[in-house]
Amino acid sequence: MSQLPLPHPTRMLGDSGIAISSIAWGMWRLAEGNRTVSEATHLVNTALDAGITLLDTADIYGFDGKSGFGDAEALLGQVLAGDPSLRGRMVLATKGGILPPLPYDQSTTYLAEAIDASLRRMQVDCIDLWQVHRPDILAHPQEVARALDDAVAAGKVRTLGVSNFTIHQVAALSSFLGHKLVSTQPEISPLRIACLENGELDQAMTMGLVPLAWSPLGGGRLADPRSASEKAVAATLDSVARDQGVSRTVAAYSWLMAHPAGIVPIIGSQTPARIVEGLAAGQVRWTKQEWYAVLVAARGEPLP
């Protein structure tokens, strides 16, 4: 039975010369639970020592609806200040453009301020990948492009990307940018397959964008499936997981990584063992039949 190729261990961010690992680690919950700088440093070292080089955060991470805006970036900044050698081992990605309670602001003025604020919080001179977190429908893409191009020209940002953009929003912004986008960050999981069928991944492959998958475990629902659909997907993943001696989590990551677009799952766990475990996904082999079985389970109906 035909097996799909194993994922390449690295991906390139456009023509920037920046290589990233095939799995990323996300810091959405880094600042939760009064985590200390020492504990955060251990997590960063865990990811880097395991071979994960892309570390993903955002200025909104840490915000609880009332306070905490920028807390995850600030904690990472303390980690980097305590051990400056860590900076050279990572590809640092962050996002901005969400500004509660507006909820979004991508005016040229605000984006410039948001990028500067992220640099200050993380105590770095340059961000390797800066992404617009969610689209501001009231911002003209030419205005957004101007702010992003200015940040690259000033040496504050090396590469650019978007998160949660539709294919048309990506195309509109790209048409005004002087510096090409290198990434797109949609929600992708075996429980959320929309971008596999709505053209997002086709556009990513056409434009050379690296798809960074947030919530690749369906917001934790794969670990505790409740609905009939979720249980069907979990059971199909379990079949491959059992055969190859991995967890359902690893099988889920590897299912995404088997797609030809080169999807990079973002591990959201703040538990060291779970972070390290994710690297096993790069060695899981899928047959086409097995891969499509998960897709059919996720669709809830046979393919046409």
From TrEMBL:
Coiled-coil regions, chain positions: none
Signal peptide: none
Domain of life: Bacteria
GO cellular component, as recorded: cytosol
InterPro entries given in the database record: AKR, AKR_Detox_Biosynth, Aldo/ket_reductase_CS, NAD(P)_OxRdtase_dom_sf, NADP_OxRdtase_dom
An example Gene Ontology molecular-function term: oxidoreductase activity
A Pfam family assignment: Aldo_ket_red
NADP-dependent oxidoreductase domain location: 23-292
PANTHER family in the record: NADH-SPECIFIC METHYLGLYOXAL REDUCTASE-RELATED, OXIDOREDUCTASE YDHF
Protein name, as recorded: Aldo/keto reductase
The organism of origin for this protein: Novosphingobium flavum
